[in-house]
Amino acid sequence: MAKDYTLEKRKYVIGGFITAIVIIFLIRLFNLQVSDGTYKENAESNAFFRKILYPSRGLIYDRNGKLVVLNQPEYDVMLIPKDLGNKFDTIGLCSVLNITKDELMSKWADMKNPRKNPGYSAYTPQKLMSHLSQEDYGRLQEKLYLFPGFYVQKRNVREYASHAAANVLGNIREVNAKDMENDRYYRRGDYTGDLGVEKSYEPFLRGVKGEEILMKDALGRIKGKYEDGIHDVIPIAGRDLTLSIDMDLQEYGEQLMQGKIGAIVAIEPQTGEILCMVSSPTYDPSMLVGSNRGKNYAALVSNKLKPLYDRALQGMYPPGSTFKPTQGLIFLQEGTITPSTAYPCYHGYINGIRVGCHSHGSPLPLKPALATSCNAYFCWGLKNFIDKKGSTPSIQLEKWKNYMVEMGYGYRLGVDLPSENRGFIPNPDYYSNSFRGSNWRANSIISISIGQGEVLATPLQIANLASTIANRGWFYTPHVVKAISDTVIDPKYHEKRKPSIKKEYYEEIAEGMRMAVLGGTCRLANLPGLDVCGKTGTAQNPKGKDHSVFMGFAPLNDPKIAVAVYVENAGFGATYGVPIGSLIIEKYLNGAISPGRKYLEERMLNANTIISSGVKEH
């Protein structure tokens, strides 16, 4: 009997078909039971309620142990959409929460919007409303039984013990979609740090969430803890921060800068710890807490004086004559000058071009040139350095730029706060492009010798230069956090950074700055017994009145504080920069202003230079 090959083939086809169905069934079963959590989530949500337990956010103290930022309770309205009853009383809920039906529907739409709330699920808790007042919270608690699926979530928001240091402290805000995508720790309704140390130290401050597992009956009512809570996870509180900021000094600095645009930065030279960091105009950090946060934030953003702009870190200004010590250091290191080298000043630098200067003796060596802030001296120094025989301007400027970078200019210093700007130090390529390939020499760029032209620096960088001179040639990266509870700060804040300039040359510069206080442009900073060293700056401003600048430190041989002051549109450095800087030094070192200088304090406290800024709204 002949073999039926058609039947044989059909057997394999049918067998293969059955095998494929079995495989598909097994894959689907695996997806349902293992990969796809929908049914598991549904089953668990019917039997259990997993409640997030939010940790207490880390507290923030100042360098003297004063509590600066603490926590206060806040209440959010949460719900599990699947547990809502069929006869949900919309009007009743609106009445209890004191909102309109349209407001409720808007919040409901936001909650279900996948762009605003990625990962929305009807089986998991969702936030409907935040910032409940104590009255609304109490009223809702009394009638919560009428609204199945709803509950109140308690969490912490910030409370501030002072109205100062908003730019240093930052604030917290509700997370957005991007935050949740970047970090799985967050879910809709959570808070994260925004600006200041709240942002840069967020991983330390936020803590670790806990979880409470509760049982539900068939009607969705909570019946108690599952297995007496043995599966619950206790939240871990965030770590506390101790700032290097002296809040008394910070508050005093902000008072001095009222009615002014600019910044103050003070550093402890021996540690790199920032003692105060004032940006003016500023704002009360408590404005960005609670139900009015959105409205207040919008008002701050639209304010023409830009109070959210941290001028201490982000303001890029011409440093003016506070830049001259860097030039003296480079010229000494490179052998362009010796401490006794003298240059003439005929009311300025006159050599094919003219850079003006005020009246003083001539010719002058280095230290008297610093004391009198002679423009001509540093122009001649740059001329001889850049146009050095046997080299080229490009090679010499590259050397100059590298020294500047070592001293903390041109790049971010690395402070432990967000949004630091790098300033600007030009290099040879910049000028080659600017002059379109034509030859350029020292006279082409002479303004950089006195901190003008293309040079830009932040107040933090200027204060760091003062700190480096105070230490005679080294600095720590400036930072605002002194300690973190149960851990250590980044080791980079304990690593010395040393520019390749000899210590003996820093001694010359420090003595020149001391002479400026004893009988030069910084005489208002002369404080008996404190041996203050200083350098003024009057930074030219093509858009209006010049900026008033001061850089200094004290005492000369045992430095405890280095400070930079920058007041926009305030004229000569001696008019505002020196008085404010000297008051900061005196306040920190002596604890109070002497009676003989109270007149100066009153003048600075009451002065208003915003009227010279060109900003109409003030």
What do you see in this structure?
The chain has 618 residues and is an alpha+beta fold. It folds into two domains: 54-116 and 126-219 and 231-243, Penicillin-binding protein 2a (Domain 2); 247-285 and 310-612, DD-peptidase/beta-lactamase superfamily (Beta-lactamase). Helices cover 35% and strands 18% of the residues. It contains 21 helices and 20 strands. Strands 2, 3, 4, 5, 10 and 16 form a six-stranded mixed β-sheet that branches. A five-stranded antiparallel β-sheet has the order 12-11-20-19-18, with helices on both faces. A hairpin with a 7-residue loop joins strand 18 (533-539) and strand 19 (547-554). Helix 10 (247-256) packs antiparallel against helix 20, helix 13 crosses helix 15 and helix 14 packs across helix 19. The longest helix is centred in the N-terminal third of the chain and has 31 residues, at 5-35. 40% of the residues are buried. The model is unreliable at 37-43 (pLDDT under 50).
